[in-house]
Write a sequence for this structure.
């Protein structure tokens, strides 16, 4: 089956760029991100990449980026392996479901969408973790974690959303890049 005219495929260039962004994001998360703290909570850059992948690329690409980002995050966490991959896949897909509505709007709505999706991602991560026997994930610390991650990731979306747009939609059609907002 051939792609329709104007349909953007997730080609090898896009996949390579997404992997590059994921690698840079995990390095930044482990180095700089660990030092940036607000009320003892640091931003979740890998979750922001998953959310941004969904906002920019739609539900299918959001799920793929979310799974990849979660799998990379799982390599460095002491939670059940696959927990981040599962929750980031769901959140990337969900962010992609709303991407058409959000990205056709203004930047403040994009930032708010990233913040809300990041908050939902933190809650989902904790609930799935509790369901897998990690009951300490749902505690009185969850509210500040959700709030801080939502704020920091909402602000971080100013940088990450354009980077994910560059990664997912490379210039392959004579230099013309489609803008989604």
């Amino acid at each position: 089956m051939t792609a329709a005219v104007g349909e953007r495929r997730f080609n090898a260039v896009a996949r390579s760029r997404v992997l590059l962004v994921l690698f840079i994001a995990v390095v930044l998360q482990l180095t700089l991100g660990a030092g940036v703290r607000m009320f003892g909570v640091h931003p979740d850059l890998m979750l922001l990449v998953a959310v941004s992948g969904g906002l920019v690329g739609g539900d299918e690409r959001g799920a793929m980026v979310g799974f990849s980002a979660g799998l990379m995050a799982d390599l460095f966490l002491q939670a059940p392996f696959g927990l981040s991959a599962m929750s980031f896949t769901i959140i990337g897909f969900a962010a992609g479901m709303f991407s058409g509505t959000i990205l056709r709007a203004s930047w403040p709505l994009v930032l708010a969408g990233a913040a809300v999706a990041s908050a939902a991602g933190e809650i989902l991560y904790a609930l799935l973790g509790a369901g897998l026997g990690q009951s300490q994930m749902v505690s009185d610390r969850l509210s500040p974690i959700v709030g801080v991650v939502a704020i920091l990731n909402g602000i971080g979306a100013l940088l990450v959303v354009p980077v994910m747009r560059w990664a997912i939609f490379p210039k392959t059609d004579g230099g013309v890049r489609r803008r989604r907002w």
Remarks:
- Residues 12-168 form a domain with the Arp2/3 complex 21 kDa subunit ARPC3 fold (CATH 1.10.1760).
- Helices lie at 12-35, 45-74, 83-97, 99-103, 107-131, 142-168.
- The mean pLDDT is 85.
